[in-house]
Amino acid sequence: MIRTILFDIDNTLYDYDRGNEAALCVVCAYCKEHFGWKEEVTFLRQKQARKDVEAVIGTNCAASHNRLIRFQRMLEKENLPLEPHVMNLYHGYWDTLIDTIEPTEDVTSFFRWAKETHRRIGIATNMTAYIQYKKLQKLSVLQDVDFMVTSEEVGAEKPDPAFFSYCMGKANCATQECLMIGDSLKGDVLGARNAGLQALWLQAYASENELRAQNGEETAFQSLRACREWIEEQAL
Questions:
Q1: Is the pTM of this model over 0.90?
Q2: How many whole angstroms separate alpha carbon 71 and alpha carbon 85?
């Protein structure tokens, strides 16, 4: 029986790609107004800043997602003042993304069902904790979350076994009684299974690259309702 359900956040509980696109439009508009950069220039410089940050700290840590560090690096390379631009870009990006968040269909009913059937709900997510908490607040599900695990807290990102080992330290159940639901085949599904957990692949917002790599994955679902039905069937 599934006693604890772990949820990814981005592209699982809401459409991250839509929010990211809107947020990047705000960043581009800001850079055009203040620096005279064309949209394609902003995209290229932001992309390079991300590569520069990852070259220093790697990709297996929450800081690699930190937009403040990326924007800082982007401005430094162009010899532009950090004040007030780096903070304006950071808040412009995240405030816009969070404003766009709408819960995936059946999120509220799924969480309510899990609580009614005495299952624990955990959040298992890469990224920095503060931003992920802001997203959960906007989704109006934080009150139903029993525990939270971010890669910032662990010091490693999915699919690193250390991440899922840390999750199990909070899950209060055996690994086979713990289920991971997420959009990433590699990070969420295979990462969890390699650590001994069960996992379902929610494809509602999965990337085309990941869908092409499906390879007959049987526990792939298009909705949280279908995931819930699978869990109920396992309990019979």
A1: yes
A2: 9
